[in-house]
Each structure stands twice: as structure tokens, then as C-alpha cells.
Amino acid sequence: MKVRDITSLIEEFAPLKLQESYDNAGLIVGREDDEIHRVLLVVDVTEEVIEEAIENQCDMIVAHHPIIFHPLKRFNSSTYVERCVEQAIRHGIVIYAAHTNLDSAQDGMSWRVAQMLGLERVSVLDETNMEGAGFGVVGELSEPIRSEDFMRRVMREFSVGAIRHSDIVKSEIRRVAICTGAGGSLIDKARCAGADIYLTSDLKYNDFMRHENSIILADIGHFESEYCVIQILFDILSKKIPIFAVRKSVRSRNPVNYMV
Predict the structure, then answer these.
(1) Cα–Cα distance, 90 to 53 (Å, whole number)
(2) Tens of pLDDT along 167-225?
(3) Residue-wise burial string across 226-259, b where 16 or more C-beta atoms lie within 10 A, e elsewhere
(4) With a threshold of 0.90, does the pTM exceed it?
(5) Closest CA to 111 of 86, 137, 149
(6) Do 113 and 10 belong to one domain?
(7) First to last CA, the chain
(8) What is the pLDDT of residues 94-123, one digit of tens each?
(9) Which domain holds residue 94?
(10) What is the CATH number of the domain that holds 129?
(11) Neighbour count for residue 181 (Cβ, 10 Å)
(12) Are residues 149 and 199 both part of a single domain?
């Protein structure tokens, strides 16, 4: 199997042209005509993940977050990014990232979270120029649920250690807006969509004051909201090439720890 055989399947689902201008999705380490035998699926490329790939003879890592966002000026093992890239090159491991293109693809990240929560009548929250593509979604529960109970359900479903939230200005939740990853920029979109709650992450202090007494703003954690990427990538690859070895990482973990 060639690298291009894997990347073409991912890009058929989430074209690279959907990525944001600041992003670095795509092939980061390796060449399109490199031969590969096993793929490891992860959220982030870390030293633990590189070790996992080596131990399991995986010669390609497909991640959500690009290991390189900014140009590297030197390779002297002084940062984890440099060490990961050095180890990947030394061991012939290809690194590929599907980031904001997968966030905005139809049936991508936020769509999967909506599916996991059982939302119905789901639509894009912030549309882009491509039909069906955009960031975030909004949908409805089949029946209203008490706000606190819904947030605890989210905690159980996504293994959330703690939810940071604004004032609980809604006693019940029916309409839910979602944006995986950092979604503070879509608060107004979620409110205008009539959502009772907006699930996202990386909200700033002042963001929690922007509820306008009409929506609950809930930060469920960046990693927690995006861990579903591993299953999305697994579904994309395993359905098209079922006999190829695709492995879900067991060392892809949340860098944020909670003391509660």
C-alpha cells in the first residue's frame, strides 16, 4: 500500500481545500510513494505515540492535530516536536494530519459528536463556501432534558473530567449547538441558531459572559471533544480497505489533567 492510497481516501472525505489558511493539514513527514504496511490513528503526535508506532511496526501515523504548525529552525532535540519529527524520520514513519478540513467536512467532527448524543435534524452552524461544509452543527434532542442531567450525560459520554460552564439560564435542553475544538468564535452563531446549550472548548474568561441570558455555554475540553477523530478515521479507512492493518492508538491521551 502506498501513502497516497491512504491519503486519497481521507481527502475524499475531507478535502485539503477545506482547511483554514493557518492550518498545516496533509502530509507532514514522508513521501506519497512511500510503501506502508500499518497505520496508527491518533489525536496528537507525541513521543509516547511515536514509541507506540515503533513497537507495533506502524510505518504511518494519521493524526488530527499537525505536529508542525510553525517552521522549525533547528533540529537539536530541544522540544518534543523536534524529537517526534527526528524519531519519525529515523524510523521511516510517515506522519499525516487531517485537521480543520476534517472539522469542516460534512459528517466530520461536530457531526460525529451530534450523532453520539442522538441529535436529530442536524445542520451546519457556520457554513463555508462549499455545499454541506462548515464549522459546528446544531440539532435537537428527541425530548427535552434537565440541563444539569444533560451536562452530566455529556461528561459520561466523552469522559469529561469537568465542565466549565456559564450561568445555567435554561432549565431544560432541547436544541444543542456543537463545535469540536476551540469554538469561541461561534458563540453568537450558536445563540442566533436558538440553541439552549453550546458545547465547545477553549473558552476564555469573558466568553462565559456572552450568554445573553439565552444560552448555556459549556467548555467540555479540547481533547474530549475531538477524541472521536480516531473512530472517524478508522471508519473511513477500514470500510474502504478492510484487509489493511489500521490500529487505534492506546497512548493518545489528554495532556490536560484535572484535580477535582
Answers:
(1) 13
(2) 999 999 999 999 999 999 999 999 999 999 999 999 999 999 999 999 999 999 999 99
(3) bbbbbebbbebbeeeeeeebbbebeebbbeeeee
(4) yes
(5) 137
(6) no
(7) 47
(8) 999 999 999 999 999 999 999 999 999 999
(9) 3-102+227-248
(10) 3.40.1390.30
(11) 21
(12) yes
